[in-house]
Specification:
The protein is an alpha+beta fold. It has one domain: L-amino peptidase D-ALA esterase/amidase. Helices cover 21% and strands 26% of the residues. The strands form five sheets. It has a six-stranded mixed sheet. A three-stranded mixed sheet has the order 2-7-4, covered by helices on one side. A three-stranded antiparallel sheet has the order 13-12-15. Helix 1 packs across helix 2 and helix 4 packs parallel to helix 5.
Amino acid sequence: MLCEAGAVAGGDIRGSATGTSEWDVLNPMHITDRIHGVCFAGGSAFGLEAAAGVRRFLEHKGVGFAFGGAHIPIVPAAILFDLGLSKEHARPTREMGESAAAAASDKAVVEGAVGAGTGATVGKMFGMKQAMKSGIGTFTVEMTGAFAGIKVAAMAAVNAFGDVKDPATGKIIAGARRAPNSMEFADTGREMLQRLPEPLGRTNTTLVIVATNAALTKVEANKLAQLASLGTARAIDPVNTTGDGDLTIALSCGSMRAPVNSLGVAAAEAVAQSIVRAVPMAPSLGGLPGLFKK
């Protein structure tokens, strides 16, 4: 995501296996008051290289903090682990990051097995052989009444250890299956109460970005990221484990006003629904079943 005019930003980390760069700029105590983009990528730590391409693209456009004759774009980045499904030695590169930034537009975000969601999977209680395919999902909540015109949009790259559930019913939509050739869900949370799962390692992460056209301070942006993270907990179970690198970045790109708590309600709903959408938009890939049907 690009915000060439600069956006107030905050972040929230709930998982224990994160991979990030430039994360400190989101801290309210950091002197940086604006960022110029966010880069999410697969490829584990190798994927952080893609952010260099986003910075290079923005620099060539004259975006960033001016210093002498140069511009320094600030681009926080986060990665998810998808090496279990990717081809050997396939890695995100700086050139890929630059190409992605050049292709960015104000059109609807493409969902499914694209970008950081290309190798994303869910339901890894019994390892990859009984997991399911996931990807990128998006959702926007439009506020009404006194807050008419204010929008809170979310995008999630869902690569969770746990299952994805419908927040309204608690029904599992995608997750760990009882057998490699079965579509019967095991219910990861219930199974963990009675047996050890496959080693969690550091191979899971749900990356979320929330953006609003409401004006926020940097402290408020951090609070919005915290409140938005509740949506992840509504849609994924179990969540925020020692093997997940779950995090949320919140961006403010507007001038309208609304209380951060009200925005947080909208953000949590947008995040939950974006996670739910990430599953049916993902096709089968690498021998793992997906729910997307052409």
